Amino acid sequence: MPPKRIAVVTSSTRSPRLNPTITQYVYDVLTSDPTLPTNKPSPASPSAIDTNPRHITFTIVDLAKQSLPLYDEAVIPASLPADNPTPHYTKRHSRAWSSVVRGYDAFIFVTPQYNWSIPASLKNALDYLYHEWKGKPAGIVSYGSRGGGKAADHLRGVLTGLRMRVVRTAPGLAVRHTGLPVGALSEEEEKVELDARDVAGWKEAGVEGMMRNLGMELVCELDKE
Ligand SMILES: Cc1cc2nc3c(=O)[nH]c(=O)nc-3n(C[C@H](O)[C@H](O)[C@H](O)COP(=O)(O)O)c2cc1C
């Protein structure tokens, strides 16, 4: 069986932003989980060959790099041929995004809360496609001053509308101390460091365990296929 590919999606697109830092944290927790059948070499035996037939590859997909304009497709995505919608989009950027999403078997959306919902950039990227999402497992990790639970709830509804199989566990990261730099900003400053107090709070609240549960729930969904 070929490896299953899970995209860990960075959902906000402004600059600077916290999302790449939070996404990297989620990625690191998932890929360091010894119970998940990832194809990352184990630190204990780096030369070991992974023979697990259902191994998993995690890849970070950043919506900011897709450069999608506000939704401008002439066709309704759900009306396109389900088996091969990509060539039927009228815009080049839609075809490119369709190809990217078709390359993954499941998704973890890492999203901030913007005014009790998800950022427009994420809704926009979701609206562009339909069959590329349909039927695939999805997980949600949110963040905000209280964990971004309202964004997670909204996103669950949107993904269910896209007929994705949204897993139950949805960790929420309360971001209290980690922040964007204040003052003049350069490109290099975009990478924001996590504040150790936030990370300690997440660990104490069991958030890393929830992320591993989420990862395992996605693996179980992929195993059903
Ligand atoms: C437009 C906007 C709306 C926001 N609304 C909320 C909110 O409803 N609840 C919350 O906890 N934080 C809210 N925040 C704070 C964000 O969670 C915080 O700024 C976070 O850094 C946003 O992620 P980003 O930096 O990746 O864009 C909001 C931020 C922005 C920019």
UniProtKB/TrEMBL annotation:
Xref: SUPFAM superfamilies: Flavoproteins (SSF52218)
GO cellular component: cytosol
Domain of life: Eukaryota
GO molecular function, one term: oxidoreductase activity
Family annotation (InterPro entries): Flavoprotein-like_sf, FMN_Rdtase-like_dom, NAD(P)H-dep_reductase
Domain named NADPH-dependent FMN reductase-like: residues: 5-169
Signal peptide: none
Entries under Pfam families matching the protein: FMN_red
Protein name as catalogued: NADPH-dependent FMN reductase
Organism of derivation: Penicillium canariense
